[in-house]
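To: structure desk
From: M.T.
Subject: fold request, one chain
Message: Could you run this one when you get a chance? Sequence is below, nothing fancy, just the single chain.
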Amino acid sequence: MAPSALSASEAAEVAAARGSLAAERADLEAAEASPEALAAGKSILEKLMSHLGFDVRVEVDAGETSRLNVVGDGDEKEALGALIGRKGERLSALQHLVNLMLSKEMGAWTRVLVDVEDYRGRRERQLRDLADRAAARVVETGKMLQLEPMPALERRWIHLTLRDHAGVATQSIGEEPNRRVVLVPRIQA
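Reply: Done. Structure tokens follow.
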């Protein structure tokens, strides 16, 4: 995930999109799920895991992001890698399924983050470190920097990590699945 310099056309796209930055940042803030929704989500995920033949437990984390973490022991722990898939694609599909089932049960759109063996937690820490290193590079060089394409959740972690950074602003550009975060130096007055 090495950052690279922006082409002239991508830099123009960033400049044109700057007006929508506040709206995009507002969309990034995820509401916390209620305790009832977390309990229902845990039950749904436990049933799904049982139907798939996994003997696991589901841990609930009601912190900054409402998270359900599937945890296994011994042989189950290794088998859980199949739920993550390449670049977390299966995990994203599992999360989507759980959120659809949860929303139907709750009667309103409800969202929880589904994790397996803290895969997303580890990935979030890696991306936050990447964001800090990339921001330092942008401040040092004074040039825009774009990161590799990543899913919406991963872009969100980059935006949230740098939202209060005095030296850089962030913007997502491109179309899925090639949407990416661009770090732009802030003009100091």
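Reply (cont.): The helical segments are 8-17, 21-28, 35-51, 75-79, 81-84, 89-106, 119-141, 152-162. Let me know if you need anything else for the meeting.
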